[in-house]
Amino acid sequence: MTKLKLLLKNPILDSYKHLLLNDGYITETLGYTLAIPNIQNKPFIFSCFALSVDGKLYYPDVKSGFNIASCNYHSTEKERKADLFILMLARAMSDALIVGTNSLRNEFGNFLPDIADSNLRNIRYNRTGSLAPTTFVICRDLSNINFSDKMFSNDSHQVVICCINSHVDLDVLPNTYAQLDFNNWMIKEDLKLKNILICSTLDELILKMHKVGFNIILNESPYFHHQLLQLKLLDEIWLNYSGSYIGGNLYGLGGTQQPFDSKSHPDCELLTLHTVGYNFIYTRQKILY
Question: From 1.10.1740.10, 3.40.50.300, 3.40.430.10, 3.30.70.270, which CATH number describes the 5-33+43-248+265-288 domain?
Answer without folding.
Answer: 3.40.430.10
